[in-house]
Amino acid sequence: MLLQYHLTSIQFLLSFIFIQSTCQAQLDQQQWHQQFSSSSVSSMTPSYSVYTHSFTYLGNTPYQNQSSSSSPMANDQIATALRVQRDIAVNVTVDQLVQPAIDLSTAFFGQNFTNSKINQVDTLLLMGYKRLVVDLYWDPLMSDWQVCPFFMNLTSSLSSSMNEIKNSKDHSLPSAASDMAFTVTTTGNRDTDILVQKDGYVCNYQRSKFRDFLESIDNYLYSTEEGRASQKTDIISIIMNLHEYADANIRVSDNDTITIAAAAGAIADIRHNNTNSNITNTRNSNDATNAFSRATIASPLLSEAVVPIADSHLSQIISASLSLSSTQSSRVYTPKNLTADREQMQALHNKMETSFWWPEWLNLIDRKVQIIFGFGTFDPPVSRTFKLTSFDNDMIFSASSINGLMNTTTAATDVACSPTLSSPVNSNVSWAFVSDRIRPFTYFSANNATQCGYSPYFTHANYSDSASSIHNVDDTGHLSDNVLSTIWSWDINEPAVTPGQGNNMYHNNQKRCAAIVKSTGRWRSMDCNGYYRVACKRMDAPYDWLVTNDTVTYDYALSPDICPQHYTFDVPRLPRDNTALRFALSKMENKLKEDDKVWINLNLVYTADDSCWVIGRYGNCWWLQETGQRFPGLVTTSIVSGLIILILVGFFVWVKCARLIRNRHSKSRKAMVKKMLAKREYVTVPA
Predict the structure, then answer these.
(1) N or C: which end of the chain has fewer CB within 10 A?
(2) DSSP 402-456
(3) Residue 405 Ramachandran class (φ > 0 left, ψ -120 to 50 alpha, else beta)
């Protein structure tokens, strides 16, 4: 009996250990697989959800000396305000959203087109810019697109000097070569360290290409995609102005060929494969070899090369440079996609006009779309040595369909909007922008344009106050300050909710509901138990607002009967919608004081970081739905394993207890039988 009991105990322990080790092995394997997958990708691209970034706003704005940080526990009111504006507009079509734009050539690059500067383009996207306008230059010798604004047709003498620099044994020493047009400098032992300067402009030799630019864009897209950093996920657009090199001495002939003043020595230098040095760049060598094979060089010195007019290959470059999304789908929304979507909408709504229809923001995000490409300006056709293909037109939107020309009929200083119920401001404007080419934006002029429904287009290099000595070392042009002008919702230092820490997870519990201030039209976080009037929006009219006469708490404002018939308690989704509500408030001069507040349908749900503002009592942030899905297999495995172990432990305990009970009952029955037999024992007398 004792031996059988010990054998049962050992069997139970061995079974328990086996099940636990099996489940742990499955967990470890899944964790390893996910860590390996993430590390293999993140080794190529930075993850902005891991590496924090911050900006200190030192420009002449109401946010001066404030900072914005990606730290989860930071009280980042600026990032929260921008994210709330994104979240409440998820069901708005993308062409109506505010997209602060920047001209990269004039406002970012200046004269520095080096590879290190190109790699910093993603910083602009982290600041909050949503549209980048880039000038691209066609290199007819390489049949490739460059960001560098000058044609590097190096003379053979300069090419020889470059060979001497590259063949030098001491690559660490700065060296230079120059001729009448160019100055070439190398500071290391790689091709990326070769800098070419002309007229104050500086570029990396063969490392200032469009594909290098797209590498920085891809880093941003990968690191901020849905599920990886959903709080930062957004849709950006790239507008491409296409140019020919003005200094390339190009002549177009009648037989679809071009004659170029080419440098044989420079091409030979690019083809040169120096096996004794560490300079290797297969892609550049192949490009140069192809260019050399296409060209007919008649002289070892500067001569003419005749090459055919080539396809632009823009669509191929974009496809090859951008990685696929987490679902292995393209991140690019194309004209082909838009045509299919419009046909589908037309089939669902027969009488709907779809010529100017665009999909909603969240619809594209659900499809893992993050970027849209569009054409801007073109050089005159007579001087073009490239041609666009059907593949390019299927991937890149025309300038007219996406306002790639950045045209507007209103100057930045002339923007004025006084919406009325019958004629709201810019109610049907698609991709509306206002440029500051004539006069640089100030915070107030750009914010005014935003309030009127325009996206500001920044084109100047420096937006700092000329009378101030305040300068940001990391942002000398105060480009990050420009994005602050697109905050049209929350007031300065709002929302005033402090993230929870430690045991006190939720600080400032009272200020979890939003109200609009009559005097400014900006929002403040208020005590939900306060009594204010309610903002009601007509359900069948986009800019028709009214305010109730009664004052109620926020909770009562959510009641369906608080607003008149055909109206509902709502929140402005767009800046011009907010301007229309402010106009409705201004008409109540006798009922509302300047500092009076009115409830809008926006409240803060209880989360660990207090950053999710939602519409309605039961709303939820779309990006919170992704938070718990990063390791679904790991969580499922843990739960299933725990349940299996719990069931088996219960079963073995029941078996043991049942056996002990049976043994105990058996012993008691035996004792009872013995006792009964003892009572019946008697002595017989022989007859």
Answers:
(1) C
(2) HTTT---SS-GGG------SSS-TTTT-SS-EEE-SSSPPPHHHHHHHHHTTPEE
(3) alpha
3-state secondary structure of 489: coil
Strand 511-517 with 523-527, pairing: antiparallel
The predicted model scores a pTM of 0.76
- The answer to which of 105-114, 207-216, 251-260, 519-528 has the lowest mean pLDDT is 251-260
Q: CA separation (Å) from 623 to 219, 322, 613?
A: 20, 23, 11
Rounded CA separation 276/163 (Å): 12
Neighbours of 301 (CB within 10 A): 12
Q: For residues 8 and 35, which has the higher predicted lDDT (pLDDT)?
A: 8
**Which of the residue ranges 85-94, 297-306, 520-529 would you say has the lowest mean pLDDT?**
297-306
Tell me the average pLDDT of the chain.
75
b/e code 80-99 from CB counts within 10 Å (16+ = b):
bbbbbbbbbbbebbbbbbbb
Q: If we measure between CA atoms, which residue out of 54, 67, 57, 161 comes closest to residue 470?
A: 57
Each domain of the chain, given as residue ranges in start order, spans: 2-43+645-680, 491-627
Q: Could you give the residue ranges of the DSSP H alpha helices within 440-561?
A: 443-451, 479-482, 554-557
Give the CA count within 13 Å in the CB-facing half-sphere of 68: 20
Q: What is the dihedral of CA 580, 582, 584, 586, to 10 degrees?
A: -140
pLDDT tens across 277-309, in order?
Answer: 333 333 343 443 333 333 333 333 334 555 566
Is 152 a residue whose pLDDT tops 60? yes
Is 50 exceeded by the pLDDT of residue 262? Answer: no
Amino acid at 576: R
What is the rounded distance in angstroms from the CA atom of residue 302 to the CA atom of residue 479? 43
